[in-house]
């Protein structure tokens, strides 16, 4: 994949660039601030952008705002956000109306190389990859809607929000794929999404919880 890196820490940025190159990806640009990121995306149109949340000049949310702008203007460009913290409001906004090709990982997860590379592959392929802690924090904002779900259904929904397929969820929860499909259908029924046409019920279920 063609990747742009945006990270103000030179050490981390260069380390990620070397890792991605060793894995066969092409790092077409490596920048240290959000303004440079937007210019690089416009110039190179990468497959994936990997960006930090907090970058110069204020080190608050420049990277995440740039990610949101990229998602709005170039939805074909996948975005994987890295952060030290869970920015709950922006993490939900990042999903927007298109939950594919987006991810949000805590930086601790980057140190687990295989998990980071797996997340990058999923996002680049049009899937989603959300850190389990990010999902837990976001779902915690929606206690009332979650009351209608069983504990197992919550587990399935959490795995969906992390971007896992039904097969992957079945493997992680040690159940059959048919059991996961049954739980998913129950979730859709309880959220009133069974008769929705023209939209992904899976995406709508995740959005309803992350954005409420």
From TrEMBL:
Keyword annotations: DNA-binding, Phosphoprotein, Transcription, Transcription regulation
Protein name per the record: Response regulator transcription factor
Domain Response regulatory: 2-122
Keyword Transcription attached: yes
Residues bearing PTM 4-aspartylphosphate: 52
Pfam families linked: GerE, Response_reg
Species assigned in the record: Saccharothrix mutabilis subsp. mutabilis
Record bears the keyword Transcription: yes
Domain HTH luxR-type: 142-212
